[in-house]
Design a protein that fits this description.
Elements: H1 28-46, H2 48-54, H3 56-78, H4 82-104, H5 121-149
Helix pairs in contact: 1-3, 1-5, 2-3, 3-4, 4-5
Length: 150
């Protein structure tokens, strides 16, 4: 065989590790997940001063949640691991659930425990961004699993 001839009997390349979400960098679900998470994180940072005046622990919560959402967006865009998608789905589901609880029966803690809050435009926009991040992360995860099986 010459050096330019390819051996067609060579073993196929091994599959990517199960934890790597492949070929997603330019996909719509990944862009939506990351972008929506950035939007939600920035909204959470924007409302920290308002919540600090209510109760300092609200401000701490919104600061940490905003930081998580921004870091998650960067991580999921660059690292693309399945566990990151799962973490994003779970964290956004928890944030949406907590928001729904606060708007229906009120939070069980804090200065206004048990009193439902009214829904404002900015928090509805934030919960919609979280829902978009959750849905897109789940879609990207589903697509990666289907590609691996197919």
């Amino acid at each position: 065989m010459s050096a330019t001839t390819h051996d067609t009997t060579a073993a196929p390349r091994p599959a990517e590790p199960a934890t790597t979400v492949t070929a997603l960098r330019n996909s719509a679900p990944l862009a939506i997940a990351a972008g929506s998470s950035v939007l939600a994180g920035l909204i959470h940072y924007a409302v920290v001063p308002e919540h600090r005046s209510e109760w300092v622990w609200y401000a701490v919560f919104f600061t940490l949640l905003g930081a998580f959402q921004l870091i998650w967006a960067a991580a999921v865009w660059t690292v693309r691991r399945r566990w990151l998608f799962i973490l994003g789905v779970l964290a956004n589901a928890a944030a949406i659930s907590l928001w729904a609880l606060s708007r229906t029966v009120g939070l069980p803690f804090g200065p206004d425990a048990g009193e439902p809050e009214s829904a404002g435009v900015i928090d509805v926009l934030c919960v919609l961004a979280e829902a978009a991040a959750l849905t897109a992360a789940a879609a990207a995860l589903w697509n990666s699993i289907r590609r691996r099986q197919g």
